[in-house]
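Run folding on both entries below.
>entry_1
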Amino acid sequence: AGKPIIQYVLDKVFLSSIENINISVHYKHELISDFIKKINVKKEINIINENEPLGTIGALGLIANKSYDSFLVLNADVITELPLNEFIVFHNDNKNDITIGAAIHEFEIPYGVIKYDELGKFYSISEKPIIKNLVSAGIYLISKKSSLLIPKNKYMDMPEFVELAKRAGLKVGVFPVYEYWTDVGLPEALTKANNKFNQNN
């Protein structure tokens, strides 16, 4: 809708209590850095250059030694209307080490689904059922303590980090996101989001 996706992400952050903003860049890093320099930012933004891709959480290892109490991690291909301060309050109230934002994902099976027993006896058929699951929304809150588990300059994705923290005995919580949420990493999702915000405008 004529507005870069990263601006949608930043607009949400600007409305929150987050004080320090770090953006990790690798692919097309010059384009992103130039955009940040041109916009009228309300808070200080630090650009972190990944010499090699570090995965969905690896870049945090480059700043984990900073004197922050916790880190709000947002995937840059996610647009949501979730009030981030509500997410932060939930994390703090529950004394979590990691809080994972979880969005509802629906998938319609385009066929009639049959249930039967091992002898082939028919039980039921459900026409084009919709399967609902909670999926990672690309929104996380991470305590200083848990962030120290992330190695520096090593590739690491979020599932590996969460499992590592869980094995270390750290507390991991889930925050369901009922507000509008979309991951625009797929072309069809990007088209839907573009249509939505064009209509809003």
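>entry_2
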Amino acid sequence: TTRAAAVRCAPGHALGVDLSAAMVEVARSSAAGLVNVSFEHVDAQVHDFGAGLYDVLVSRTGVMFFGDPAAAFRNLVRALRPGGRLALLVWQPYAGNEWIQLLRSALAAGRDLPVPGASGPFSLGDPDRVRALLTGAGCTDVALADVRRPMDFGATVDAALDFVTGLLGGLVADLDSAARAAALAALRRT
């Protein structure tokens, strides 16, 4: 996302941040050769970005994981110049994510898995909550769009299986080897 922003905003500068040092390193390597981009390993919820320095703030599925979204958005909005913009992509509520329901069902191995709560990736799926958080942080003209697109997990079944197992593999971690193998076979069929 930051690499794409750097290309689009040239000769301006794009700053990418992540709480994960490993993700920052992946981002740095993917942006090799671009001179108008930098990356920092920081917590965007509390990092001092300065006041009024940025034209646009973009997050692709990152803001969903804020521990204190109200404080985090206040911090981020503070960093925007007057008239600056936020562009955020977040997941729909759990009930609106058929793909994850299907994958979790395949990995359930006959168990009843609890429905994920309001924290984590589904934390900003409620438009009214998002609107309240953003206006509470000082945003005006908040516009939300209901975007739904097909999911692509990889070019092959094996690549998709590797990706999804990395994403949801914890759901089978406590299973014995036979049950785990059955759950992964169900995932492969799904």
